[in-house]
Design goal:
148 residues; 2 domains; 6 helices; 51% helix
């Protein structure tokens, strides 16, 4: 966050000096992830946030910019019916059931979004040989991890 509002690039060593020595590993992991997302450039050990990311991230944080950065207030004409708890419950239950049906290979009218399916695959909740027994094992593995 500190580098977001700085006008000039900084040496990576300066940014590393802001971290406590026992947290340098997390700092390096964060830099690696940011590099993987192409959020900054590192030229000869000098850190500079990419302008596009810096501008849009600042707009998202401050609520400015066009409608794509949360800056446009909706008018009363845009409002449709009020969203009720019952409506949210119904929609969430239908979506959850579509995910469960997809996971156990039950044909359903509603298929989860591609992003959801991709997430299930990356979480190793789906495999080439999806059987109910493998799904139970994977579910038990998740429950065991969550309980720790």
């Amino acid at each position: 966050m500190r580098v977001l509002y700085l006008p000039n690039p900084l040496p990576l060593s300066t940014i590393a000096s802001w971290c406590q020595p026992n947290h340098l590993r997390q700092h390096n992991v964060a830099l690696t992830k940011m590099a993987g997302l192409h959020l900054y450039s590192d030229t000869n050990g000098v850190f500079r946030l990419l302008d596009v990311f810096a501008v849009h991230f600042t707009q998202a944080l401050t609520g400015t910019g066009d409608k794509y950065s949360f800056g446009q207030v909706s008018s009363s004409e845009d409002k449709k019916e009020a969203v009720t708890i019952e409506f949210l419950d119904t929609v969430s239950q239908k979506r959850w059931e579509s995910i469960l049906h997809y996971m156990v290979k039950i044909n359903s009218e509603q298929v989860p979004a591609e992003g959801t399916i991709d997430l299930l695959k990356k979480a190793d909740l789906l495999s080439k040989y999806d059987t109910k027994m493998q799904l139970i094992k994977k579910t038990n593995k998740i429950k065991k991890i969550q309980s720790t």
